[in-house]
Design brief:
Number of helices: 5
Number of domains: 2
Oligomer: single chain
Strand content: 15-25%
Radius of gyration: 39 Å
CATH class of the largest domain: Alpha Beta
Order of helices and strands: HEEHHHHE
CATH superfamily of the largest domain: Band 7 domain
Largest sheet: 3 strands, antiparallel
Structural class: alpha+beta
CATH architecture of the largest domain: 2-Layer Sandwich
Strand order of the largest sheet: 1-2-3
Length: 162
């Protein structure tokens, strides 16, 4: 009988060990699930203010003006400027408006450029100054009423002085 009790105890020990291991694994699993839920659900409220919206990348919009050939001022009457310009704009409204008024834009640019001399245009400062003057000339209203235009830059595509 003593042997039977010992063998019965031996059989109970593996069952109780299995139960302890099973309970421990369940507790670890529950704690892991609780920690995961806390980190994903609980911290999302706190982190919403920290999360910045992704930057929206907008493709640049351009309006092509030209090409045009202009007689330049100076001692010699055979000095010419051949140029084409790209206007960088911020929105479709400006692009559509400038496309509609392209004859006016060409006229303003021809008048402006024909007042320049070859010496003024050959220097880098002269080209930069002309770009600023074009921007200023295009900021004057074309019509009344007119939407607010957003021209951000003037870029020369061709610029040949002869």
């Amino acid at each position: 009988m003593a042997d039977e009790k010992k063998s019965g105890e031996k059989e109970q020990q593996p069952k109780s060990r299995k139960r302890i291991i099973l309970v421990a694994m369940m507790l670890v699993g529950i704690m892991g699930a609780a920690a995961g839920a806390y980190l994903t659900l609980g911290s999302s409220d706190a982190d919403e203010s920290k999360i910045a919206e992704p930057a929206i990348i907008v493709d640049p919009l351009f309006v092509k003006v030209g090409p045009m050939t202009v007689n330049l001022q100076g001692k010699s009457t055979d000095r010419l400027l051949y140029t084409s310009v790209m206007l960088r704009v911020s929105d479709d409204t400006t692009r559509n408006f400038l496309t509609t008024y392209m004859p006016d834009i060409n006229n303003r640019m021809l008048v402006l450029l024909s007042q320049k001399s070859a010496e003024q245009l050959k220097a880098a400062e002269g080209k930069s100054q002309v770009a600023d003057e074009i921007l200023l000339a295009l900021s004057e209203p074309f019509s009344d009423p007119q939407p607010e235009l957003s021209i951000v830059g003037v870029y020369f595509q061709d610029f040949i002085v002869q």
